[in-house]
Amino acid sequence: MQNNEFLNENLEYGDLKRLVEPELHIDQYKSKMGDDADVCVLSFKVSGKEPATDLMAFVEKGYDYVLDADVSSGEKEGGDYLVFVEISRTPELPKQIYQLISDVLNLTEQKLSDWQFKYRKSSDLRNIDEADLANIIPLTPEDYSNKYGQDQKEIDSLKAAAGVDVNTKAPVNDFTEGLRRAAGIR
User: Each residue of 93-110: pLDDT tens digit?
Assistant: First the structure.
């Protein structure tokens, strides 16, 4: 599933020591690869552009389940950059996040107990635990839409009131597919 051969070529144990903040943000940012219901976005805060680029390359090349990794275009306060990681929203997501963090620990010389995560807009920091991740993160597009679909409806309503094109797609499920067929839409 992963290919860490390049770890020996580019990054070695401890190369990112004291450079990666041990706080993972999940679904705080919008996906650039697809709909938020389909793609989970992780973000890491890294001190400096070069270390951020190194972490991005490590993640992007090392895991076949990572859709994309990118570094923020500009620096945050204090010279920090964000590294964004996009992963498909599937029941395997907690295991994938846990594996990714475990491997990042080798680069940072941190312990798992040092790390915490925040989900979406919550200010609560939680310890990184595979079961806790599974309980908090919607693991399918349907779960995400059921939990946060109202947010999108409110955004669409605001867009319509402002005269902005609304281009939100209906979720794909048996009900909406039946409606599409009945309306002759494919």
Answer: 999 999 999 999 999 999
